[in-house]
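Handover notes (outgoing to incoming on-call)

Open items:
1. Protein p34: sequence verified, structure written out, both below. Nothing else pending on this one.
2. Nothing else urgent.
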Amino acid sequence: MMTQTLRLALGSLGIAIAVLALKLWAARITGSVALLSDALESVVNLATALAALIAVRLAARPADTRMPYGYHKAEYFSAVIEGVFIVVAALLIFHQAYEGFRAPAPIEAPFEGIAISMLATAINGVWCVVLIRQGRRLHSPALEADGQHLWTDVLSSIGVAAGLVLVIVTGMPVLDSVLAALVGLNILWSGTRLLASSVGQLMDVAVPKEQLDAIRETIGANAQGAIEAHDVRTRQAGKVTFIDFHLVVPGTMSVEEAHAICDRIEAALQADHAEAMVTIHVEPEAKAKHSGIVVL
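Protein p34 structure tokens:
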């Protein structure tokens, strides 16, 4: 059965094709370098939507003997690929802007081109809100990254349209190339930020402090019978939050009793934190550090 994440990824691919067609049409009838630059960014949207679709399908595969921790990190690789595509698009846009500076040309049918571009921008605007919200709800880095990139596309497209009005009013075609360069700078900034974030996730960065505090509180509230929990470690991989820690119990406690405490903590963590995978190392009281989460 097709998951909601996969349906959204397929939707992104269809939206990207439609928006690209509209923006290329606008660039063709106007001859505007800025609108062509905006269309080049939509080529990136199409490529990243395809990368997100492949990553979402791969990340949905269950763990196996080759990948015992699952395929969740595939989505972060997709986000890295998106960042690279964005940077490449920025370089292409800078080239187009340079050519425009060398030979400025008047813009044809500007208002028709702006209207078509704004229609494409409205479609992108609605879809990016859907992707960001659903990406966060479904814990999908690929969908959220796709939505964040679409948002920069929306902002740059609005800037291009406003700038083209200025070109018409001033009668200065060279401003068209200035706009193209500004679009390139905007998406270059977006691409570098996305790359930095995605690489950080591939390096197993811990969950945010607020989430870590909630995890520690859940452990403490459900560890009755234990002495303490220490060395709590976390990492995020797509939908899955990996949590591991050491649980110190009285030396006279039976294995069955200690196991029951572990089961209780694990169930509570999985109830409070979606898709949690918990590993607990049980230790006797001689291993207590008298730090971390003190239960008794």
